[in-house]
Glycerate dehydrogenase (Inquilinus limosus), 328 residues
Amino acid sequence: MTLPSTPKIVFLDRETLAPAIRLRPPAFPHRWEEHQRTAPEQVPERLDGASVAVINKVPLREPVLERLPDLRLIAVAATGTDCVDTAWCDRHGVAVCNIRGYAVHTVPEHVFTLILALRRSLLPYRRSVEAGRWQEARQFCFFDHPVLDLHGARLGLIGGGSLGSAVATIGRAFGMDVVFAGRKGDTAPADGRLAFDEVIATSDVISLHCPLRPETRGLIGAAEFARMKPEALLINTARGGLVDEAALTEALRAGRIGGAGFDVAMPEPPPADAPLMKLLDLPNFILTPHVAWAARGAMQALADQLVDLIDAFEQGRPFNLVAGGPKG
Protein backbone atom coordinates (compact mmCIF):
# COMPACT_ATOMS: atom_id res chain seq x y z
CA MET A 1 0.00 0.00 0.00
CA THR A 2 2.29 2.72 -1.24
CA LEU A 3 1.70 5.74 -3.43
CA PRO A 4 3.28 6.72 -6.75
CA SER A 5 6.59 8.56 -6.56
CA THR A 6 4.97 12.00 -6.76
CA PRO A 7 1.31 11.47 -5.87
CA LYS A 8 -1.35 14.09 -6.33
CA ILE A 9 -3.18 14.81 -3.05
CA VAL A 10 -6.41 16.82 -3.22
CA PHE A 11 -8.32 18.26 -0.25
CA LEU A 12 -11.82 18.91 -1.57
CA ASP A 13 -13.31 20.89 1.34
CA ARG A 14 -10.53 22.65 3.25
CA GLU A 15 -13.10 25.16 4.52
CA THR A 16 -14.38 22.50 6.95
CA LEU A 17 -11.30 23.23 9.07
CA ALA A 18 -10.87 26.69 10.57
CA PRO A 19 -8.35 28.94 8.77
CA ALA A 20 -6.16 29.09 11.90
CA ILE A 21 -5.62 25.33 11.80
CA ARG A 22 -2.28 24.43 10.22
CA LEU A 23 -1.95 21.46 7.90
CA ARG A 24 1.68 20.45 7.79
CA PRO A 25 2.84 19.02 4.45
CA PRO A 26 3.19 15.23 4.13
CA ALA A 27 6.75 14.02 4.63
CA PHE A 28 7.34 12.74 1.08
CA PRO A 29 7.44 14.30 -2.40
CA HIS A 30 3.89 15.10 -3.53
CA ARG A 31 1.65 17.56 -5.31
CA TRP A 32 -0.83 19.18 -2.93
CA GLU A 33 -4.01 20.80 -4.17
CA GLU A 34 -6.81 22.14 -2.01
CA HIS A 35 -10.20 23.70 -2.57
CA GLN A 36 -12.22 25.55 0.03
CA ARG A 37 -15.40 23.78 -1.09
CA THR A 38 -16.35 21.39 -3.86
CA ALA A 39 -19.77 20.81 -5.42
CA PRO A 40 -20.63 17.19 -6.32
CA GLU A 41 -20.37 17.88 -10.05
CA GLN A 42 -16.82 19.23 -9.57
CA VAL A 43 -15.46 16.11 -7.87
CA PRO A 44 -14.45 14.02 -10.94
CA GLU A 45 -12.47 16.85 -12.53
CA ARG A 46 -10.72 17.86 -9.31
CA LEU A 47 -9.79 14.28 -8.42
CA ASP A 48 -8.66 13.40 -11.94
CA GLY A 49 -5.21 11.82 -11.56
CA ALA A 50 -5.33 12.05 -7.76
CA SER A 51 -3.90 9.24 -5.66
CA VAL A 52 -5.23 10.64 -2.38
CA ALA A 53 -8.56 12.37 -1.77
CA VAL A 54 -8.93 14.30 1.47
CA ILE A 55 -12.53 15.04 2.36
CA ASN A 56 -14.68 15.92 5.32
CA LYS A 57 -18.26 15.90 4.03
CA VAL A 58 -17.97 15.76 0.23
CA PRO A 59 -19.75 12.55 -0.84
CA LEU A 60 -17.78 9.95 -2.79
CA ARG A 61 -20.19 7.34 -4.21
CA GLU A 62 -19.80 4.60 -6.80
CA PRO A 63 -20.71 6.67 -9.91
CA VAL A 64 -17.87 9.07 -9.08
CA LEU A 65 -15.40 6.56 -7.67
CA GLU A 66 -15.50 4.36 -10.76
CA ARG A 67 -14.24 7.36 -12.76
CA LEU A 68 -11.11 7.69 -10.58
CA PRO A 69 -8.76 4.83 -11.53
CA ASP A 70 -5.72 6.45 -9.88
CA LEU A 71 -7.31 6.79 -6.44
CA ARG A 72 -5.57 4.76 -3.73
CA LEU A 73 -6.57 6.45 -0.49
CA ILE A 74 -9.52 8.44 0.84
CA ALA A 75 -8.51 10.24 4.02
CA VAL A 76 -11.64 11.40 5.82
CA ALA A 77 -11.04 14.46 8.01
CA ALA A 78 -13.68 13.27 10.48
CA THR A 79 -14.71 10.12 12.32
CA GLY A 80 -17.91 9.44 10.41
CA THR A 81 -17.44 7.83 6.98
CA ASP A 82 -21.06 7.68 5.85
CA CYS A 83 -20.17 10.11 3.04
CA VAL A 84 -18.02 7.40 1.38
CA ASP A 85 -19.18 4.28 -0.44
CA THR A 86 -16.97 2.04 1.68
CA ALA A 87 -18.42 -1.16 0.18
CA TRP A 88 -17.25 -0.08 -3.29
CA CYS A 89 -13.85 0.84 -1.88
CA ASP A 90 -13.54 -2.58 -0.24
CA ARG A 91 -14.31 -4.31 -3.52
CA HIS A 92 -11.81 -2.22 -5.48
CA GLY A 93 -8.95 -1.95 -3.01
CA VAL A 94 -9.24 1.76 -2.29
CA ALA A 95 -8.26 2.42 1.32
CA VAL A 96 -10.49 4.60 3.47
CA CYS A 97 -9.08 5.96 6.72
CA ASN A 98 -10.76 8.15 9.29
CA ILE A 99 -9.81 10.26 12.30
CA ARG A 100 -10.23 8.82 15.77
CA GLY A 101 -9.77 9.94 19.35
CA TYR A 102 -9.24 13.64 18.62
CA ALA A 103 -12.58 14.75 20.12
CA VAL A 104 -12.55 12.62 23.26
CA HIS A 105 -12.54 15.71 25.49
CA THR A 106 -14.27 18.40 23.46
CA VAL A 107 -17.43 16.49 22.46
CA PRO A 108 -18.17 15.26 26.01
CA GLU A 109 -17.68 18.82 27.28
CA HIS A 110 -20.24 20.02 24.73
CA VAL A 111 -22.61 17.24 25.77
CA PHE A 112 -22.56 18.44 29.35
CA THR A 113 -22.83 22.07 28.29
CA LEU A 114 -26.16 21.15 26.70
CA ILE A 115 -27.25 18.95 29.60
CA LEU A 116 -26.50 21.55 32.27
CA ALA A 117 -28.09 24.38 30.32
CA LEU A 118 -31.30 22.38 29.91
CA ARG A 119 -31.48 20.79 33.37
CA ARG A 120 -30.96 24.16 35.05
CA SER A 121 -33.13 26.17 32.60
CA LEU A 122 -30.29 28.59 31.82
CA LEU A 123 -31.83 29.95 28.62
CA PRO A 124 -35.30 30.59 30.09
CA TYR A 125 -33.81 32.30 33.15
CA ARG A 126 -31.59 34.48 30.98
CA ARG A 127 -34.56 35.48 28.86
CA SER A 128 -36.55 36.28 32.00
CA VAL A 129 -33.77 38.46 33.42
CA GLU A 130 -33.43 40.28 30.09
CA ALA A 131 -37.18 40.91 30.14
CA GLY A 132 -36.99 42.55 33.60
CA ARG A 133 -38.57 39.70 35.55
CA TRP A 134 -35.95 39.86 38.33
CA GLN A 135 -36.62 43.52 38.96
CA GLU A 136 -40.31 42.70 39.31
CA ALA A 137 -39.73 39.87 41.81
CA ARG A 138 -41.03 40.39 45.33
CA GLN A 139 -38.20 38.32 46.82
CA PHE A 140 -34.47 38.00 46.09
CA CYS A 141 -35.13 35.34 43.43
CA PHE A 142 -37.98 33.81 41.45
CA PHE A 143 -38.88 30.26 40.47
CA ASP A 144 -40.47 30.50 37.04
CA HIS A 145 -38.49 27.61 35.55
CA PRO A 146 -37.48 24.20 36.93
CA VAL A 147 -33.93 23.62 38.17
CA LEU A 148 -32.84 19.98 38.29
CA ASP A 149 -29.56 18.52 39.55
CA LEU A 150 -27.48 15.91 37.74
CA HIS A 151 -26.57 14.12 40.98
CA GLY A 152 -28.74 11.04 41.30
CA ALA A 153 -30.20 11.31 37.79
CA ARG A 154 -29.85 8.43 35.35
CA LEU A 155 -27.71 9.03 32.27
CA GLY A 156 -28.51 6.58 29.48
CA LEU A 157 -25.86 6.25 26.78
CA ILE A 158 -26.66 4.82 23.37
CA GLY A 159 -23.35 3.95 21.79
CA GLY A 160 -20.09 3.42 23.60
CA GLY A 161 -16.65 3.89 22.15
CA SER A 162 -14.28 6.61 23.27
CA LEU A 163 -16.88 9.38 23.28
CA GLY A 164 -19.58 7.45 25.09
CA SER A 165 -17.04 6.25 27.64
CA ALA A 166 -15.76 9.81 28.21
CA VAL A 167 -19.32 11.09 28.70
CA ALA A 168 -19.87 8.25 31.19
CA THR A 169 -16.78 9.29 33.18
CA ILE A 170 -18.01 12.88 33.47
CA GLY A 171 -21.50 11.70 34.36
CA ARG A 172 -20.19 9.56 37.19
CA ALA A 173 -18.17 12.52 38.47
CA PHE A 174 -21.45 14.43 38.78
CA GLY A 175 -22.90 11.52 40.75
CA MET A 176 -25.16 10.30 37.96
CA ASP A 177 -26.34 6.72 37.57
CA VAL A 178 -24.72 5.86 34.23
CA VAL A 179 -26.06 3.01 32.09
CA PHE A 180 -25.30 1.86 28.56
CA ALA A 181 -27.98 0.58 26.19
CA GLY A 182 -27.76 -2.62 24.22
CA ARG A 183 -28.73 -2.80 20.57
CA LYS A 184 -32.31 -1.95 19.76
CA GLY A 185 -34.36 -5.13 19.78
CA ASP A 186 -31.84 -7.10 21.87
CA THR A 187 -33.71 -8.00 25.06
CA ALA A 188 -30.72 -9.63 26.77
CA PRO A 189 -27.60 -7.57 25.99
CA ALA A 190 -24.22 -8.63 27.35
CA ASP A 191 -21.37 -6.72 29.01
CA GLY A 192 -23.57 -5.19 31.69
CA ARG A 193 -25.65 -3.18 29.25
CA LEU A 194 -29.36 -2.73 29.80
CA ALA A 195 -32.03 -3.43 27.21
CA PHE A 196 -32.51 -0.51 24.83
CA ASP A 197 -36.16 -0.06 25.79
CA GLU A 198 -35.30 -0.03 29.51
CA VAL A 199 -32.73 2.70 29.01
CA ILE A 200 -35.23 4.76 27.00
CA ALA A 201 -37.91 4.39 29.68
CA THR A 202 -35.82 4.94 32.82
CA SER A 203 -33.22 7.58 31.89
CA ASP A 204 -33.42 11.22 32.89
CA VAL A 205 -30.89 12.12 30.19
CA ILE A 206 -30.29 10.11 27.00
CA SER A 207 -27.17 10.88 24.98
CA LEU A 208 -26.45 9.45 21.52
CA HIS A 209 -22.94 8.34 20.53
CA CYS A 210 -23.45 5.84 17.72
CA PRO A 211 -22.64 6.03 14.00
CA LEU A 212 -25.28 6.59 11.34
CA ARG A 213 -25.87 3.30 9.53
CA PRO A 214 -28.94 1.78 7.88
CA GLU A 215 -29.78 -0.01 11.13
CA THR A 216 -29.45 3.15 13.26
CA ARG A 217 -31.25 5.61 10.99
CA GLY A 218 -34.36 6.81 12.83
CA LEU A 219 -33.18 5.03 15.97
CA ILE A 220 -35.19 7.44 18.12
CA GLY A 221 -38.71 7.97 16.85
CA ALA A 222 -42.28 8.39 18.03
CA ALA A 223 -42.34 5.07 19.90
CA GLU A 224 -39.22 5.99 21.88
CA PHE A 225 -40.48 9.47 22.74
CA ALA A 226 -43.73 7.94 23.99
CA ARG A 227 -41.77 5.74 26.43
CA MET A 228 -39.46 8.45 27.79
CA LYS A 229 -39.94 10.12 31.15
CA PRO A 230 -41.83 13.43 30.90
CA GLU A 231 -38.74 15.30 32.19
CA ALA A 232 -36.22 13.35 30.07
CA LEU A 233 -33.65 15.14 27.93
CA LEU A 234 -32.40 13.86 24.57
CA ILE A 235 -28.87 14.94 23.60
CA ASN A 236 -27.56 14.30 20.10
CA THR A 237 -23.98 15.21 19.18
CA ALA A 238 -23.58 12.20 16.87
CA ARG A 239 -25.57 12.31 13.60
CA GLY A 240 -28.82 14.01 12.71
CA GLY A 241 -30.29 10.96 10.99
CA LEU A 242 -30.36 9.01 14.25
CA VAL A 243 -33.50 10.88 15.31
CA ASP A 244 -36.84 11.28 13.55
CA GLU A 245 -36.96 15.08 13.63
CA ALA A 246 -40.71 15.24 12.97
CA ALA A 247 -41.31 12.95 15.96
CA LEU A 248 -38.99 15.10 18.08
CA THR A 249 -40.93 18.20 17.08
CA GLU A 250 -44.21 16.60 18.10
CA ALA A 251 -42.77 15.34 21.41
CA LEU A 252 -41.40 18.76 22.37
CA ARG A 253 -44.48 20.72 21.28
CA ALA A 254 -46.72 18.29 23.18
CA GLY A 255 -44.55 18.41 26.31
CA ARG A 256 -43.93 14.65 26.23
CA ILE A 257 -40.25 15.11 27.13
CA GLY A 258 -38.36 17.69 29.14
CA GLY A 259 -36.14 19.03 26.38
CA ALA A 260 -33.49 18.33 23.77
CA GLY A 261 -30.00 19.55 22.90
CA PHE A 262 -28.76 18.92 19.37
CA ASP A 263 -25.46 19.71 17.66
CA VAL A 264 -26.41 17.90 14.44
CA ALA A 265 -29.22 17.96 11.90
CA MET A 266 -30.30 16.23 8.71
CA PRO A 267 -29.30 17.69 6.30
CA GLU A 268 -26.53 20.09 7.27
CA PRO A 269 -26.85 22.97 7.10
CA PRO A 270 -30.59 22.64 7.68
CA PRO A 271 -32.91 24.70 5.47
CA ALA A 272 -35.00 27.41 7.11
CA ASP A 273 -38.10 25.22 7.06
CA ALA A 274 -36.38 22.16 8.60
CA PRO A 275 -38.10 20.69 11.69
CA LEU A 276 -35.27 21.62 14.06
CA MET A 277 -35.24 25.23 12.88
CA LYS A 278 -38.92 25.49 13.79
CA LEU A 279 -38.14 24.56 17.40
CA LEU A 280 -35.82 27.47 18.16
CA ASP A 281 -38.57 29.41 19.89
CA LEU A 282 -38.86 26.74 22.58
CA PRO A 283 -37.09 27.40 25.89
CA ASN A 284 -36.23 23.71 26.29
CA PHE A 285 -34.51 23.17 22.94
CA ILE A 286 -30.93 24.09 22.06
CA LEU A 287 -29.42 23.72 18.59
CA THR A 288 -25.74 24.36 17.92
CA PRO A 289 -24.21 24.24 14.40
CA HIS A 290 -22.21 20.97 14.55
CA VAL A 291 -19.41 22.52 16.60
CA ALA A 292 -19.10 20.02 19.48
CA TRP A 293 -15.88 18.77 17.84
CA ALA A 294 -14.50 22.18 16.93
CA ALA A 295 -12.46 23.34 19.91
CA ARG A 296 -9.18 24.69 18.53
CA GLY A 297 -6.99 22.06 20.18
CA ALA A 298 -9.20 19.21 18.99
CA MET A 299 -9.29 20.56 15.44
CA GLN A 300 -5.50 20.86 15.33
CA ALA A 301 -5.19 17.30 16.62
CA LEU A 302 -7.49 16.21 13.80
CA ALA A 303 -5.36 18.02 11.20
CA ASP A 304 -2.17 16.47 12.57
CA GLN A 305 -3.68 12.98 12.56
CA LEU A 306 -4.95 13.52 9.01
CA VAL A 307 -1.42 14.05 7.72
CA ASP A 308 -0.19 11.14 9.86
CA LEU A 309 -2.71 8.92 8.02
CA ILE A 310 -1.34 9.95 4.64
CA ASP A 311 2.30 9.53 5.72
CA ALA A 312 1.60 6.10 7.21
CA PHE A 313 -0.20 4.92 4.09
CA GLU A 314 2.70 6.02 1.89
CA GLN A 315 5.06 4.05 4.14
CA GLY A 316 2.94 0.93 3.77
CA ARG A 317 1.62 0.88 7.34
CA PRO A 318 -1.88 2.36 7.18
CA PHE A 319 -3.97 2.77 10.31
CA ASN A 320 -7.59 3.67 11.11
CA LEU A 321 -8.70 1.68 8.07
CA VAL A 322 -12.44 1.33 7.60
CA ALA A 323 -12.25 -0.03 4.02
CA GLY A 324 -9.72 -1.30 1.53
CA GLY A 325 -7.70 -3.33 4.04
CA PRO A 326 -7.80 -4.88 7.54
CA LYS A 327 -10.17 -2.90 9.76
CA GLY A 328 -8.86 -1.36 12.98
Q: What stands out?
A: The chain has a mean pLDDT of 95. The longest strand covers residues 154-158.
